[in-house]
Amino acid sequence: MTDQATPLITLERDEGVTTLTLNQPERRNSLSMAMLEALSEQLERVAADDATRVVILAASGPVFCAGHDLREIRGQLDQHAAQLALFQLCSKVMQQIVHLPKPVIARVAGVATAAGCQLVASCDLAVAADSARFATPGVNIGLFCSTPMVALSRNVSRKHAMEMLLTGELISAPRAEQIGLVNRVVDEQVLEQATAQLARTIAGKSSHTLTIGKAAFYRQLELPLADAYDYTAKVMADNLQAEDAREGICAFLDKRAPSWSDR
């Protein structure tokens, strides 16, 4: 068992990049109520942290995340309210990631299954080790991955999502990249380095611009085509009023590096 003094989520900051690490490897970093509460709390903190420009979501041990804690669920099989509270909290955390005003990159080593796969799909970007594997295997135990389906189906095509959901089979990291679940697959030995490099590249942009862009990306996906264009036209016009947009345009035309004020 994890010592009570050992945090379920560890936090590390490095030049604008904050890494949140699931830290219960002996329980396969499962999303118990306690783990979800800890993750929710840390997401709230980094959302309000001006020094954090990009977030990396990682995990300790050989498993990224095995989904919900089935031992916890088995102990509450006759407690519908407790079960609903668990899935509602999980849904809240996934939405926190989507609505976080900073980009979130999943750094995936090992297996990500069920709600663990949902966690990867909820992040804005994902870098996976070549040995990583993914699945939504709830169908194998009579519990369809209905909430993981929400994030999965917003990342990959319908038929690819349905194949994962209906078969419950593990897919490889290259296959996950092929269907759009992850962005990049790298050698496991350089996973941390490759993810950090991607994070630093993004952290070098205006954080104000990143916040505007991330929010607009997810909002326009919900809209019909004409409404999406109307909405994003206003976003761009408003964005042009920001100091960083004016600085960026001037820097480009003057052939110099921009100096961001994050405003």
Would you kindly provide a written description of the structure presented here, covering whatever features stand out?
The protein has 263 residues and is α/β, with parallel strands linked by helices. The chain has 2 domains: 9-203, 2-enoyl-CoA Hydratase, Chain A, domain 1 (Alpha-Beta Complex), CATH 3.90.226; 207-253, Lyase 2-enoyl-coa Hydratase, Chain  A, domain 2 (Orthogonal Bundle). Helix content is 48%, strand content 16%. Strands 1-2-3-5-7-10 form a 6-stranded mixed β-sheet, sandwiched between helices. Strands 4-6-8-9 form a 4-stranded mixed β-sheet. α1 (33-47) packs parallel to α3 (80-99), α3 (80-99) packs parallel to α4 and α9 runs antiparallel to α10. The longest helix is centred in the middle third of the chain and has 20 residues, at 80-99.
- Contiguous helical run count: 11
* Counted beta strands: 10
Q: Helical proportion?
A: 40-55%
Give the helices and strands as they follow along the chain.
EEHEEHHEEHEEHHEHEHHHH
Q: What structural category arises from helix and sheet content? A: alpha/beta
User: If you compute it from the alpha carbons, what radius of gyration comes out, rounded to the nearest whole angstrom?
Assistant: 19 Å
In terms of DSSP E residues, the strand content is: 15-25%
Tell me the domain tally: 2
Strand line-up across the major sheet: 1-2-3-5-7-10
Low-confidence stretches: none
Distance N to C terminus: 46 Å
CATH architecture of the largest domain: Alpha-Beta Complex
Tell me the name of the CATH homologous superfamily of the largest domain: 2-enoyl-CoA Hydratase, Chain A, domain 1
Q: What is the fold named in CATH at topology level of the largest domain?
A: 2-enoyl-CoA Hydratase, Chain A, domain 1
Main sheet overview: 6 strands, mixed
* Average pLDDT, all residues: 96
Q: What general form does the structure show?
A: globular
Name of the top-level CATH class of the largest domain: Alpha Beta
Organism: Marinobacter xestospongiae
GO molecular function, one term: enoyl-CoA hydratase activity
Family: Belongs to the enoyl-CoA hydratase/isomerase family.
Protein name: Enoyl-CoA hydratase domain-containing protein 3, mitochondrial
